[in-house]
């Protein structure tokens, strides 16, 4: 297919501390045109859409990458800051399955405000001879969204497979594991949410709540997909590669004070009933984790020298759950962009299963829904190919109508999985979005 390649001009200027980036997003922008990638207040927030490509099918990553290669080659870029994320930047989100009815997308916002290591900037992007959206970036930073703390009135209803039916789906997966069809399969469910008055759901307030509660995650929005993921599929920056693999989950009970950072195994500070201790000594969770780490290590190995794979996971603490986590690092020796690496890593065993193809087939047969962009790579990339790609978890996808949304959660099923416990795990994982949307107190 031939695609027109826009001739873009991008200009990045340094600015003074811009405050909370999310409060700069005007309420009147189309919520599907808000883009964000934030961690502890740093990162990128953009809006408007100057260019975009949507792709589908098995070559959805390759087609998007080819488009970006041409767009960045044709672009005229002025960049006085020169950091990862300055100059021309694209945000992307890809479907989990090549068979999804939904489109994958790479989108380029007109305005991006960024902050990193104490430096801040504004990038404006226009097509052809269009004028710059603002004469001076200070015009953008003077505006504050007064309604950032006001949530839209939303209501929730059952998704494709109701909560009551979920244990039966999990039990069917356990039987298939017992028959030796797969070792592990990740199954997910959705819940529907909609605006009570049929109006568009505003994205910035949702991001604001996610960011303030889930500091250890990457808060994102790309073309209506919004969430806070704890899982980094791949980060490529200056030739260094990183990946954070999660698999193995236990509910975090109320009552363990946040300041208690006792690590299981760290002597007598860890109580024997501490769920973290149960997690690091659970063969079921350790097996599930090992599958996921192996799948990422195998996909990264061809691109990296000195790939470091930890021998044992640590416990990542989120407000609602603990996860087994492993951070892999390596040095790139191939020319691949961060998106190419994300495509090679997707789908990891953390969101699909093992063996990959058999697990994907079981998902297609048992899940009863199209995952859309849930559990697919989501992130951003700059003109050098550096970027961050997380796995779209703890998220919701805003429909084209802008007022309804599906929120998602899943979990890894292995031979020892208990169907009722798996339902409970999805409920705990849904807390992140329910809380951010004002549907749960948490
Ligand atoms: C599938 C999800 O999470 C994934 C599954 C996990 C598990 O089964 O323990 C843990 C983290 C994620 O890799 C989700 O949040 O929807």
From TrEMBL:
Keyword hit for Transmembrane: no
GO molecular function: isochorismate synthase activity
This protein's record includes keyword Lyase: no
Class of the enzyme per the UniProt entry, highest EC level: isomerase
Residue ranges occupied by any Chorismate-utilising enzyme C-terminal domain in the UniProt entry: 165-429
Enzyme Commission numbers on file: 5.4.4.2
Pfam families the UniProt entry points to: Chorismate_bind
Keywords from the named record: Isomerase
Reaction catalysed by this enzyme: chorismate = isochorismate
Family: Belongs to the isochorismate synthase family.
Protein name: isochorismate synthase
Organism this protein belongs to: Serinicoccus hydrothermalis
